[in-house]
Amino acid sequence: MQTIHVADRVLDRPEGEDAVAVDGGLIVAIGPYERLAAEHPQARMRRWPGLLLPGLRHPQAVPLLEGAYHPDPREAGELGTEPLTGEALAALTMDDTRWGASARRGLQRLMAHGVTALDGPFTRPAVRTAVARSGLGVRAPLKGSRHEVTALALDPFVHFPLNALLDGDLSVGTPAEFAVFDVPMDELPEQALRLRGARSCVATVLGGRLVHRAR
Fold it and tell me: What is the pLDDT of residue 1?
């Protein structure tokens, strides 16, 4: 089914080109919503506030998924909600089943931050399986991108600039993998995203599928 995603603005597109049409997992058109709606009259329309941009790659995906535990919501009272590392992780009894469940929760949290690709490779079998089943792309890490930062953050804007995080671009014929962030349109995109953070993500599309939608 065709879908047209409409935002206040599409990154690096002229003003007024506010919509992206998706069909079969691919971007089939980019332009003004009125034109795309006329060209694709059967398409479902999804309207989002803010800035639509290519999906993000996360440079810290390996340590976040293979070196941190993402608590189950049922464990929040005991373990909190943030990823556990160091002594807190060492105090847990970790096996393949628990690593796999943690990775699946971590992947959902990453997608909720606009992430559609991960810097790899992954070596824990349970984590590698979870990543493969998620549909997220795995990329070769950029030189130094993972090791120059010691603190982990689900929000990639905490440590990295926008131009180091974009996983490709938006163009006709490419996979429909993008995210929308509810940030002000009167600020520069990088400044707005850094100030508001990736928690401002309202939608993430992976292979044409809506895998995250803010409630």
Answer: 84
Question: SS3 of 146, please?
Answer: coil
Assigned domain for 163 exists: no
The span from the CA of 211 to the CA of 94, in Å, is 28
Q: At 209, which amino acid appears? A: R
**How far, in Å, CA of 28 to CA of 25, rounded?**
9
Q: Are 136 and 118 in contact, with CB atoms under 8 Å apart?
A: yes
- The total of structural domains in the chain comes to 2
32 token code pair: 């003004």
135-146 burial code (b ≥16 CB/10 A, e <16): ebbbbebeeebe
Which segments of 32-176 does DSSP mark as H helices, in order?
Answer: 33-39, 61-66, 76-79, 86-90, 96-111, 125-134
> 140 and 67, same structural domain?
yes
Alpha-carbon span 200 to 214, nearest angstrom: 9
pLDDT averaged per 10 residues, the chain (length 215)? 96 95 97 97 97 97 97 95 95 97 98 98 97 97 62 94 95 97 95 96 98 92
